Amino acid sequence: VSIVLPRRGVALAALVMLGGWVASLSASDITIIGSSTVGDVLTRVAQVWRAQGNTAIVAITGSGSNSALPALAEGKATFATLSRPLTQSEITAFTATHGPLITVVIGYDALAVFVHRDNPLPAITLAQLDAAFGAERRRGLNPIRRWGDLHLPEPWTSRPLLLIGSGPHAGAHALMRELVLNGGTFAAQMVQEPVTSSIVQGVGTDPAAIGCASAALLSKRTRMVPVGESLDRVLLPTAATCSDGTYPLARPLILCWSATTAMSAEAKAFFQFVVSAEGQEVIANTGFFPLGRVAEMENHLPVVDGK
Amino acid sequence: MRQGADLTLRGHYDHAAVLRQSTIVLVVFLLVGCGGTRTAGPVQVDGRLSAAPGERRVLTPAELDLLCGAYADRYAAALISACDATALVGTPAQRRQALRLKLEAVSAVYDIATTDDPLTKLLDLLMVVTVQSQAWIDDDLAGRWFGANDRHVVGAIRRQRQEIWMLAAQVLRPAQLQEIDWLVWEWRRAHPQVEAISFVRFSDVAAGAGRALAADIRSGGGLLAPLDDALKAAEDYRRLAERTLYLAKRQPFLLAWHAELMADTLFEKHEIATLVTVAERVVTLAESLPALIERERNAVLSGFIEHRAAVEKFLADVRQTIESTRTLVSETKTLTETARGTLSEAGTASTAATKTVTTVQDLVHDLTPAPGSTSKPFAIADYVAAAKELTATVRELTQVITATDALIKSRAWTERLDEVNHAAAERVEHATGQAERILDTSFWRAAAIITVFFAMLLTYRVLSVRLTQPPREKQP
Description:
Shape of chain B: elongated
Oligomer: heterodimer
Distance between the termini of chain A: 66 Å
Largest sheet of chain B: none
Shape of chain A: elongated
Largest sheet of chain A: 10 strands, mixed
Order of helices and strands of chain A: HEHEHEHEEHEHEHEEEHEHHHE
């Protein structure tokens, strides 16, 4: 079967397709790979940034903090994002082959402990949280199953705790395991909600419930409980306690890139916007804690690891 | 000619044919390449976030459509039960609000359930039910409206939110669920004042990210199987008929609730409310009227009883006074007059007694039965005792009268009367003398006082004239 096609038309079509392909290859001016939590934050920031007339396309992949540095090493990403501090082994592995790594904290995510507004629990320690939520109880306390175990008076003494948490895909799940359970697993009786905001709502509907979620999700039917290593040093999550490192359930939102790779003008502009007052306001509105001193961050000197 | 030229072209340019075929292959390659760059990586472009593919069973649009319809019915049942339970124990305002919630929420869910696209249906259900739960639970509209009676509504809305997210988890990947959760949460945070949440749809959430996310799911980025175009057209017609039937079956309930709410809202209007208030006051007054009358009657009776006691006491006093007066009168009457009166009465009584005896005798005579009468004859023995007593009484009365008459005519009685009259005359004379003495003494004392008064007046006059006169100048 012979196919008859006008040569000029075929050539034109080929050119158009080729142009489209090239355009698609260069569509993502800025590629960000890593933590889904930071991805959520930067998605909002990118929307505002583009709404101001910036035409560069920002492509964001939320595949987890562990995938961030490998993607950067392979040259797939302009920025890598993590919602936890980098480990020494990660830094060593990257710098050994790709040179110095620049890391910048762009904000904080904090887990808050929520109870119903009628629940009188005054404060809780990390060990008590581990004894309530953890299956292995790696911090060493006996299991906490009733509110009397947390020294609440009658009529709370015999009421069982209703544990509400997030599923394994949520950032709060991993953060809780890391900061509270010391890497342990969750107790089987914990109710797993498919999305994070549902945790706080569940706590708000049952006075015997307790849950951990982003502090931004505080509702009118819930109350945040001060947390600490011991009951005499408990704190609530605020921008100040998160940025100075005193609040124990906070984690930094980190943006990093290779110091040896030349950064495009669009990427520089986007980074400057992220750490600007306007960008930090977007982060705060998204429910995360912004950096404490935004004015200083506008002339930010990034931390260079591995030198 | 044109065909010939093409043949010539084919005949003379075999390489050209190869080139054409190569061009086609290249175009196909490019097309595949472009498509590949679009779907190969889990990349977010312009704010679109997708996740790595999972190992989950893919739902067909028809299955999703059925699941959404079933969910809408479960939602309606739960909300109806909760709102009715709340209305049962609530105030009129709470009852009205429960009815409004039921109508708006269920109408919205049925409205969404009858849209044509299953994915839009799911996303809109997610949006409405989640925002509703945020408003009624997180922002505590339930507590504000229903107070302590909010547990039915809170429980139902909470369960329905959990159910719709479980349904969504069958179609969306965890990362997509998280993104939708954040999108909805951000929308609510930006619009906290919106209470008419039944009209919110997923397209309102975010023009960019929301649309991109929906497109990603529709193109196979989620767990929803894409439909062939030809199948889709047939499927659309089938679903249209199903949706029409679905809504037609449920429309009567919605209409009934509309009517109920309209009536309730009508009563909420100021004029009607005033009218109802007035009517309630009239009814209340009418209901309390018997009790009021009873109370007033009791008050009047008790007042009368109290008054009666006072009147009786007064009457008793009057009677006592009269009695005292009568005693006084009887004491002041002279014994003579009393005796005479008694005598006269005794004489009258004697006459009357004689007449009585005569009358009795006449009566006895008259009562004798006529000859041939069949009735019981008059028995005189029955009246003999009474006649004897009557005769004895008359005799004693006559003796009393005789004795009294003798007393009045006796000398001792006359002397006693003279003594009494003399003593009274002496006392009257003594009293008259005393009165005259007091009168004389008073007269003379008054005369002396008047004289002294005028003397002092004259002295004052003289002294005042002399004191006010200017001193005389000495003559040289």
